[in-house]
Write a structure and sequence with these properties.
Blueprint: E1 2-17, E2 26-31, E3 44-49, E4 62-63, E5 65-67, E6 70-72, E7 75-79, E8 82-85, E9 94-98, E10 105-110, E11 118-120, E12 124-130, E13 137-143, E14 148-150, E15 156-162, E16 167-172, E17 184-188, E18 193-209
Parallel strand pairs: 4-8, 7-13
Antiparallel strand pairs: 1-18, 2-15, 3-14, 3-16, 5-6, 8-11, 9-10, 9-12, 12-13, 16-17
């Protein structure tokens, strides 16, 4: 099985932030648009404190469903170490797998809820597919911070309840030129400003390509 890609058109991502250095918790608000000013849905925005101080708590889990032969949601974000459950709500079996360096795994043919969630213990992008239905694809970004959000249909994302600190805020989208490339143009939100990410090349999303069923992680 291989990964296939096609280069598409250029995108422009614009991210605006507000200052949040002080004694009280604050928020960062970001809008992401393309080069025509249209909102970009499903972009991931995450904030890393410059001090390196992160809550000493267990990352919350998450759920990626399989509904009508699709992963729902298409794009997810979670903190490194999170346990993700993959319920199959279809009346047919699925075989979920990934070859991504951040997490290689396979859930062999099943329906319902797997006995155990999958723990994603490394940061990075995980591209997942179904070994039976090659139109199914999902993207999971693991980040080393609990402060993250995903843009809505209007291109907006809010990260709330940030402890007092200065932060590096990063914008990532699954149609970046290289799926495992570093996120584009991080910036430190020390004062009010707008950052424009120019010249980003987009492509048809990376996805696993099947050649009939077999054990995805086998020889």
């Amino acid at each position: 099985m291989r990964l296939s890609k096609q280069i598409g058109s250029a995108l422009l991502f614009c991210a605006s932030s507000f200052p949040f250095i002080g004694a009280n918790a604050a928020s960062v608000r970001v809008q992401v648009t393309d080069q025509l000013g249209a909102p970009v849905k499903d972009a991931i925005v995450y904030a890393m404190p410059e001090s390196g101080k992160l809550p000493a708590t267990k990352p919350p889990g998450a759920v990626i469903d399989q509904i009508k032969r699709q992963f729902v949601p298409l794009v997810s974000v979670a903190q490194t170490g999170a346990a993700i459950t993959f319920p199959n709500k279809d009346n047919i079996e699925h075989d979920v797998y990934s070859f991504s360096p951040a997490k290689r795994f396979e859930l062999n043919l099943y329906h319902g809820i797997p006995a155990k969630p999958v723990v994603f213990d490394n940061p990075g992008l995980v591209v997942m597919g179904c070994n039976i239905h090659d139109t199914m694809v999902a993207y999971l970004l693991l980040v080393d911070t609990p402060y993250f959000a995903k843009t809505d249909a209007n291109g907006h994302a809010d990260i709330d309840n940030l402890p007092a600190d200065s932060y590096k805020v990063t914008v990532w989208h699954y149609r970046m030129t290289e799926p495992n490339a570093p996120p584009i143009s991080p910036f430190v939100s020390r004062s009010p400003h707008t950052t424009k990410h120019r010249g980003l090349r987009a492509q048809e999303p990376w996805r696993p390509r099947q050649c009939g069923y077999r054990d995805a992680l086998g020889p």
